[in-house]
Amino acid sequence: MSHQVVIKNAVKIYGDYKAVNNANLTIKEGELFTLLGPSGCGKTTLLRMIAGFNSIDGGHISFGDKVINDIPAHKRNIGMVFQNYAIFPHMSVFNNVAYGLKARKIHKDEINKRVMEALEMVQMAQFKDRQPSQLSGGQQQRIALARAIVIHPDVLLMDEPLSNLDAKLRVQMRTIIRKLQKDLKITTIYVTHDQEEALAISDRIAVMKLGVIQQVGTPVEIYKDPQNTFIGDFIGTSNYLKGKVIEKNSNGTRININNKIINMNLKNDYTGEVIVGARPEEIMITDAKKDELNGEIVIGTFLGDFINYEIRLANGQIVEVNEYTKDISHIRKSGDKVSLILSSDRIHIYDSTGEEVLL
Ligand code: ATP
Fold first, then answer.
1. What keywords is this UniProt entry annotated with (predicted)?
2. Greater model confidence, 252 or 23
3. Is the Cβ–Cβ distance between 263 and 254 less than 8 Å?
C-alpha cells in the first residue's frame, strides 16, 4: 500500500546552519515528487530525514497518518535507490534483489516469484545469475531499482539515481523509472540537481535553495511561472531586464524598460525598480521599428526548428531570443537592427531583489 507523505515544519540543523529550514510539503499517494536544487540546497538532507538516516530536529514527517519521526529506518518500509547503486558486490543479481525479502522471512516460493517479477519489470530477468561485476552501470542501477521495489515499499526514495550514468542511458533510465512508478503507483520522492531530468520525470517538483523550499508545482507551472528570479534562472533560461515603475493609472502600471514603456497589471502597488523576466521563446523579434525595445544581432545560431539569437541592447546587455519561424533558412545577420516585443501576458515582473513576483 502506497502512502501519502506529509512534511510539517521539518528542520535539520548542522551547527548553527539550518540545512532544512521549516520544510512543508504534502506528497500525494502515488505521485512522483522531485526535490530539485543546486548542490548544498538541502535536498539530500531532507530525503535522508524521510528515510530515517538523519534525525529530525524540528517538526514532523508522516507516512499516511502515522508520524514516523521516531521510527528507525529499517522499520519505515521504504525502498531506497542511491547514486552509487550500493548493490552487494559478492551476491548474484537474484540474491541482491531477494535480500530484503529474506530479511523479512518470506517463504522461498514467494521470494522466487517476487524477485522474478521485479527483474522482469526492469528488464533484467535474463541476468539473474550474473555477478554485479559483470554488469554495466545502467544494469546495476536497474538491479538497485528492482531491489528497492521488490519489498513493496510504502514510499520509494531515490537520491540522484541517474547521476553516474552517461547522457543517453540517463534518458533511457528516466523512462524506465517513470513507467515503473506509474505502473506500481508507488509514492516516490526523487532527488536531483538536474532541472531537465526533474521536468521530464516528475508529477510535481519542489525547488530548494539554501535549505528553503522556494516553489512547489507541476513542471509546467514551475517553468511557466517561476516565483522568483532564482527559479527562472535555475530552471530553463531567463533573460532579466532592469525596469522602473513610472506611473500607475486606471489602465495598470507603466514600466520603463530601456526607454520602452509597457503597461502591466501588477498585483500590488509596488513602486520603484523592477526586474523583468522573459524566457528566450517568450520574446518576439521583428525588423527594427521606432519606439520599440531595440537592439542589434550579435549572432544567430540555427538549431533545427528554431534560431537562437544573441541580441545586444543599447545599454550593452545581451538578451537571448529563440525565433520559431516558417522560413528557417533565413537567419538574421550580425549587426542587423531588430526590435524585441515583450507581450505583457508572457513576461514576469519581480521586485528589485528578484525575490518576489509582482504579477
Ligand atoms: P548535493 O547535491 O551536493 O548532495 P544537497 O542539496 O543534497 O547537495 P545536502 O547534502 O542536503 O545538499 O547538504 C545541505 C547542507 O548541509 C550543505 O550546506 C552541507 O554542507 C550541509 N551538511 C550536510 N550534511 C552535513 C553533516 N553531516 N554535517 C554538517 N553539515 C552537513
1. ATP-binding, Nucleotide-binding
2. 23
3. yes
Burial (CB < 10 A; 0-12, 13-18, 19+), residue 142, is buried
Residue 111 pLDDT: 96
What is the side-by-side strand order in the sheet with 348-351?
A: 260-264, 252-257, 239-249, 273-278, 348-351
Tell which one of 35, 41, 49 to mutate to probe ligand 1, the residue whose CB is within 8 A of the most ligand atoms: 41
| Cα–Cα distance measured from residue 9 to residue 59, given in angstroms and rounded to the nearest whole number | 5
Query: In which band, very low, low, confident or very high, does the pLDDT at 332 lie, cut at 50, 70 and 90?
Result: very high
Q: CA torsion 71→72→77→78, rounded to 10°?
A: 110
Which pTM does this prediction carry?
0.93
User: In DSSP terms, which residues pair with 215 in a beta bridge?
Assistant: 207
Give φ, ψ of 47 to 5 degrees.
-60, -40
All three cell numbers of 114, joined, read 517476487
What is the torsional sign of CA 171, 172, 174, 175? positive
* Segment 139-191, tens digit of pLDDT: 999 999 999 999 999 999 999 999 988 899 999 999 999 999 999 999 999 99
Residues with CB under 6 A from ligand 1: 14, 19, 37, 39-45, 193
In sign, the C-alpha dihedral spanning 159, 160, 162, 164 is negative
Ligand 1 mutation target, pool 12, 44, 46, 190, most atoms within 8 A of CB? 44
Instruction: Please give the Cα distance from 248 to 270 (Å, whole number).
Output: 10
Amino acid at residue number 203: D
Stated as kind and residue range, the H or E segment containing 248 is: strand 239-249
| H or E element in which residue 178 lies | helix 167-184
CB 276 within 8 A of CB 342: yes
Smallest Cα–Cα separation from 234: which of 248, 215, 253, 250?
215
- Nearest ligand 1 atom to the CA of 208 is 6
Type of residue found at 207? V
